[in-house]
Structure formats: C-alpha cells, structure tokens
C-alpha cells in the first residue's frame, strides 16, 4: 500500500522590517518641533562663526584674541577662567544637557524604545566614529611618522554638528522625509554621547578623585528633587552649578556634568508630582504621552542651547587667521589637518553607510518604500559637518595657540563646508522623490489628526 501523498508546504515570505520606516505620528510631530528650533540655532551658529572668522582676519584681529582671553569668575574657587574656556566648559555643558535629555527621551519613551529601530542609528553612529578615527590615524601615521602628538587629534573628525547640519537642510532639504530627518537627529544625538565619553576617557589629563566623588552629593540631591516633581529653578540651578564646578575641579571635562545631570531626569511624570497633577492624571505618560520632566526641561533649555550657548561657543572658538602659519597653507602638507578633512568628508559617510548596510544585511531589513541607498549616503555625508564638538576636541587635543590648533580649526571649517556642499548636491538631485514622499506623509498626518480628533 503506497504512502499518502503529502501536500508540499508553502513558504510564506518573511515580511522584512523597514530600515528607515516612518515613526508614529506623535513622535514625528515631536521631532519636527525639535528640528525647527535646531534649524534656527544652526542659522545663528553660522552667523556667529562667520563673524568670528571676519574679525580674526581683519586689521582688528588682536581685539578678538584679547576678548577670548578676558578672565572672569571667582579666583578663590579656581574658576577665574577665560571667556573662551567658559564657552567650552560652561556653555557646552548646557548643550550636552539637552543632548542627554533627548537621548534618554528617545530610548525610554520615543520610537527608539523598540530595539529594532534603535539598532540602526546607534550602529550607524558607532561606525561614524570608528572609521573617521581610523582614517585620521592612518593619514598621520603615514605623513607624521614618530610624531605621537599628532595622533592626539584622532577624535576631532568623529563628531556631527546637528545644528549646522539642520541649517543646511533648512536651505536644501525642506522636503526630506521624516524617516531620514529622525535618522539624522538620532544619529547626531548618539554621536554626541559617544563624543562626551571620548572626552571623559581620553582627554582627561589629570584626575582628582575627591572632587569627583563630592559631585555625587549635589548630583544625587538634584536627582531626588526632579524625581519628586520639583521644577523650581532657584532650587535646582544651584545644585547643577555645584555639580558642574566639582566635575570641573576633578579634571574631567566639565561638559560631562551636563550629561550626568540629564540622565538623572525621569522621562515619565511621577504620580501626584509638584506640577499639580493628581494620581489619576498623566496616566498616559507610561506610553510616552504628556510632558514628563525630561520633555519639560528639554523644552526650556533647547532654545538656550541652540540660540545662545552654541553660537557663543562658535563665536569664541571659530576665529582663526586663515593666512597665518596655522591656516590654509598647512592644509595640503600636514597630516593633522589632512586627517581631519579626510575623516569628516570621507570617513563619516563611509562609516555610517557601511554600518547601516551591515544592520540591513544581518537583520533582513529593507529601506522604506520610496527611499534608496543614495539617500542614506546623502545623510551620511551631511553628518560630516562636525563643527561645534570637533572644535572642542581640537582644543582639548592640541591646546590653544600652537600651529596645530589653528590648522585643526581651518580643517574643521573646510571639511564641514565640503561635506555640506557634497550633501547639497545629492539631496537636491533627489528633491523630486522627497517631494512625493512628503505629500504622502502629509496625507497620512491629516488622516491621523482626523482619527485622533474627538467625535461628536
């Protein structure tokens, strides 16, 4: 008796996860609000940097250096710092505080709380740090053999300046799909966190453990208060200032204090907190809705960061004599500026694109409908704009004044400008595609608004 025939099993094709799919409507709207504020800050940043360059290359350039070196602050607390140091250590602490809040918000209550979504920008950011650093080291090993001091600048081309990048987008990429904008923003925020870790680990020349341990006390009190719902600035600001001062005294770069303070702020609103909400209110916070403490502080401090702190830092850091010994003549002959330009223009897009491709390869993810790999390449090139944090790391690596410091500043400006121009060409060529996607997203948003609107 023959065996019964079996019906062959049909393999159901696996539904591939979108690599850069659009996020939820609530998250997309929140990201759009952030991008609008950062775009304004980027415009102010460009104006401040241009003003510094003009002044530093004018007949009155001595006045610019005099302004940078003016010392203010209480000497008894060893805080009589120059204005340039206050900008790098103090103002950028505000910038990193906002970046820390945004990163925590994304991973706790945003769309990136899904590990599959988070993997793409996180791995891409790591690739965008590792490859530029390796390329810088390769260039300087070949051109500056035996000069260990030149290798200290390996981290300069690893940073992405989100404000500068979004200022470029405001001009040439108005129709950029929300998926790519979110990818760029999250990539830059993770990049900032990696940069602050690099600063803390590799650019701490001396460490005083006692002030660092003492900083835990005001940091802990700050954490307790914000978790209890306290938002009074007159109570929180002194604790934040003391934390910053103790971290500064420890030898760790003071901007680390901004990230530490941000990570203590809870994302979700506590039940019955000091904002006046009762036990039953704010229940939606568990799903990421409502203004929790992190969102509250981010809303308050982002304008201060983008509109004041970062432009002032740029104004006090970007001024360099282009025709001097540390200027344009050294760009084509020395490994340090060449490594910085190569890292920003080639290393960043290569690292980000390769890392993103690896995620797609090993997670069976597809690019969202309408997008192509050239779009990821365009955003990756745009990530080579590494202005603010690159200048900061350059000053930490080489100090202020030596030839390399001037060359690094010119190289950062040159590399960032080249990355902006290359990204502009790619994004403009794809603008027709982006416009069609934008129209589709606008219809989807209108449908989401209509569905969310109360009936009756």
From TrEMBL:
Ranges of biased composition (kind: Gly residues): 275-291
InterPro entries, alphabetized: Na/H_antiporter_dom_sf, NhaA
Keyword Protein transport attributed: no
Region feature (Disordered): 272-293
Transmembrane segments: 39-56, 76-98, 118-139, 151-172, 184-203, 209-226, 304-324, 336-360, 372-398, 410-429
HAMAP family xrefs: NhaA
Family: Belongs to the NhaA Na(+)/H(+) (TC 2.A.33) antiporter family.
NCBIfam families in the cross-refs: NhaA
Protein name per UniProt: Na(+)/H(+) antiporter NhaA
Organism of origin: Microbispora amethystogenes
Lineage summary: Bacteria, Bacillati, Actinomycetota, Actinomycetes, Streptosporangiales
